[in-house]
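Bug: token stream looks shifted between consecutive jobs. Job 1:
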Amino acid sequence: MKFDFSEDQTMIRDMAREFSASRIAPHALQWDRDHGLPRELVSEMAELGLLGMTFPEEFGGANVDMVSYVLAVMEISRGCSSVAVMMGVNHLVCEVVYKYGSDSQKSKYLKHLASGKGIGAFCLSEPQAGSDAQNQKTRATKGGNSFKISGKKAFITNGKYADVFIVTALTSVDPKEISVFVVERDTEGLIIGGLEEKMGQRASDTVEVTLDGVMVPEENLIGGVNGFKAMLGGLNSGRIGVAALCCGISQSALDLAVEYAKEREAFGGTLADLQAIQFKLADMAVGLETSRLLTLKAAYLKDENKNFISAASMAKLYASETCNRIVSEALQIHGGNGYIQEYLIEKLYRDARVTTIYEGTTEIQKLVIARQVLKGK
């Protein structure tokens, strides 16, 4: 078993680390207060190849492996998880188009998104359909060579700025026949709601999307009628990215806790001298390292074209739950100062909470893992 990274993987990690430290981290608190990211940041990330990392160069990607992508996400999230979630959702949309889309869809949309010329949004959740993702109310009715889509999508990341939306909709009276469509931003009837006032990851835009009789050509159907597997396949991959994002938040929280413990004077020394604090730091470090290993294993299995479904859910489950524990302990080490918005740990505490909810809740991950175990996989 080999744990060393290749030269290319190390170079990508170091590039993302330097960019995150110089271009993202210094502005994270202000972006959180502003509830948004500067558009030029997306362009800079595109120039570095961070928006379509695992996809072929012919489609605007950087053609690197999933392990490299994971290493980059860890570093970007270390600077600001809002940036990482924007990056991750765009990658998720690219994954759906690349894996299940037609050649024309790849040429038209994947190249646009992977190169950073545009941003994608993943429209699955609805007001009544969160974990119960198949409880869809949005409908697509066929007429000639087009589909008319009507419905409402909730909690859509990148929705404010995206120009390509991947949308699920029922295409039959059968509630299990759910299909996937590409909808372009300027399509008549596509209505983008206002920004949600979120607890954390506030620099990442989240909106409600209404489809009021949106007309799309049949050629915008991804994976054929009843192609819901395209969305599920994308989610399996996306969970690896979220696990990596959690590792980045955890690393940032641990860094802050160590720095504060060394500086804060208490009981005739520093907090770092106290065994109670040392035990906390030890538990945090072990949790972070375990999260990293689970995440990298899932990425490795995907690179090897092996079944990574269970590994992805294990990584997402463990890394997100551990992230919340690590950030909580880091805030505890900061004491009262950790509760003040002037300190970055307060932001990390808010940012971490959603990680056990989006891209499949903790409870959903346990169901996925149990089903894979029962299948003997």
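Job 2, same session, no restart:
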Amino acid sequence: MNKRDIVLDLLNPSCKPAYIPAAFFLHFDPVYHHGQAAVDKHLEYFHYTDMDFIKIQYERTYPHLPEIQRPEDWLKMPFYKLDFYEEQLKVVEGLVKAAKPEALVILTLYSPFMCANQTAGEQIVNEHIQRDPEKVKAGMQIITESLMAFVKECIRLGLDGFYTSTQGGEAERFPDSSLFQQCVRPYDLALMEEINRSCIFNILHVCDYHLPYRDLAPLVDYPGQVVSAGLELTGGKTSPKEVARLFGRPFMGGLDRLGVIARGSQVEVKQAAEAVLKEAPERFILGADCTVPSDTPWYNLKLAISIAHAYQSS
């Protein structure tokens, strides 16, 4: 069996995976963001760590547009055509050709809300949504249509799936939770539903990079064959088993991206990985709660992955 088969077996209740898969993600130095250099660095990292699929780091963020100052300015949101994504598409094409026979190849996809934040800044986006959500929705629609064209081109190139990252539903993001339902959720789902129809392996990533969540339940109907989420909620810590049960699918994560995996000794990494594996759900991918710092030692990640591969539950 190759890594493709092992990870896909995780999605089949009638199959028992040969071992517990594992994967960690980090951003490479900017010199490795484009072209063959990016393809080679992703492959180097994949082979060194022995992780179980390739997750392409998305490095084509939306330009900051200081002219968006009022809610009505979202009506002028630019529509970025495929040439805007050209460099990222070249990396997708290169890694699909190089690695797809060996492992699943997926790509981070930032949500339309996250791209809006890149465009105008979180504070402005939040203020505009609260002042005039209808005006902001016009901009969100343009962003979604642009991302949809990008997604469809990635699928045409043979990508296996996406790591769909969502924000906007955090506990302190909006005082009125209906604003998430109006201005974030429909645009998330437009892309995720297309992805889910077309791709065999997608990870829903509930991103708490900026703010924690009160409750993950409002996102349980978001598509994705696997769910990845932080475990620290405003009311206390949840567990991988509880998140897997809540979403009804395999869970990926367990380790704190800023904890021992990033800064600890190899003894500490081993202890932390084994502690997570001991309490993991039956169908599980060992990983961090989000992207680990770029200076995280690769040997720490390699060690944690090897422990997952060798782990035998008692």
